[in-house]
Design brief:
With 300 residues, the protein is of the alpha/beta class. 34% of the residues lie in helices and 27% in strands. The protein is built from 11 helices and 13 strands. The strands form 3 sheets. A 6-stranded mixed sheet has the order 5-6-7-3-8-9, sandwiched between helices. Strands 11-12-10-13 form a 4-stranded antiparallel sheet, with helices on one face. β6, α6 and β7 form a beta-alpha-beta unit. It is globular and about 70 Å long. The mean pLDDT is 90.
Length: 300
């Protein structure tokens, strides 16, 4: 697997009339890398996807998809796309629809049954798609995305309409796509999911890229406080609060916040309290905290 990016965006700008939707976006995704693209509605995520797919033209900047120009035959062969609202022919069965896509992708029809099984549609494959739930249609869209060994996979809200178990299964398939060497860009509002299942986080705010790094690096750069929740021994919460400060929680616990550089000193002070403390929970800033920070929500 090469370190050369499979997807590259260089100072990408997009305007519609006087409205500037994207403002100098530079982003790369390497083979096997899973990057989450976050942002409010209207931040520019969908516009960025359309530019990568060649569905709309750049105002300025440059995009390459596996070394090819967006919209070119080479770029289309190298990429796959799963939209939030998938649409299939309602009168076709799932098997018939996927066989059609396989032929269009130059794949053998023999790949269809294993793919349907892989996304959990083996038993429903013979039924008309018009009788399926939204989640089942989303699974068929993922099976389509697996065709042709894509080098770049663009997934727009891929877990939309899925139950928790199906969401877990879907991300397992996304992991397989990345393991095969595809660069994966996932636009999502499901912060808890992408926090655990992506390698890097990119955040758009009003058309600008305001963050692009690993979760740990974003935490270090943001400098947000760490939360410590201390459970006191029986009837010891008041004394615990007196010694350490903080807020009482549920009558038996005390919650403290500290800067990252203060963490070890705070833990030393807590250890010195000995039997007064029954338990300690430490939580670094979550992706939701970081998203609010980088998108400007915590400054409102």
């Amino acid at each position: 697997m090469t370190d050369k990016p499979a997807l590259t965006l260089e100072k990408v700008c997009k305007r519609y009339g006087k409205a500037e939707i994207l403002k100098g976006i530079s982003l790369t995704v390497k083979p096997g890398e899973r990057v989450a693209l976050l942002g409010h509605n209207g931040a520019g995520k969908t516009t960025l996807m359309k530019l990568i797919l060649g569905l709309t033209k750049l105002t300025a900047g440059r995009i390459t998809v596996a070394g090819a120009e967006p919209g070119s035959a080479a770029a289309r062969r190298a990429s796959t796309y799963l939209p939030e609202a998938v649409a299939f022919h309602k009168l076709l069965s799932g098997r018939e629809q996927l066989r059609l896509f396989a032929r269009l992708a130059g794949e053998s029809p023999r790949c269809v049954e294993p793919l349907l099984e892989r996304v959990g549609l083996g038993e429903a494959a013979g039924r008309r798609i018009g009788t399926w739930s939204k989640g089942m249609r989303q699974r068929l869209g993922l099976a389509q995305a697996l065709l042709g060994q894509p080098r770049v996979a663009l997934l727009d809200e891929p877990t939309s309409g899925l139950d928790p178990i199906s969401r877990h299964d879907l991300y397992a398939v996304i992991d397989e796509i990345a393991a095969r060497g595809a660069a994966v860009l996932i636009a999502s509002h499901a912060l808890t999911e992408v926090e655990a299942r992506t390698d890097r986080i990119a955040i758009l705010r009003q058309g600008r890229l305001v963050a692009d790094d690993t979760l740990e690096q974003l935490r270090a750069q943001a400098g947000l406080p760490i939360r410590l929740r201390l459970t006191a021994q029986r009837d010891g919460a008041e004394e615990l609060q007196t010694r350490l400060g903080g807020l009482r929680v549920n009558g038996t616990a005390v919650e403290l916040h500290c800067r990252p550089e203060e963490k070890m000193d705070r833990l030393a002070r807590i250890t010195a309290l000995g039997g007064l403390v029954a338990d300690v929970e430490m939580a670094p800033p979550s992706l939701e905290d970081l998203y609010r920070h980088y998108s400007g929500e915590d400054r409102r």
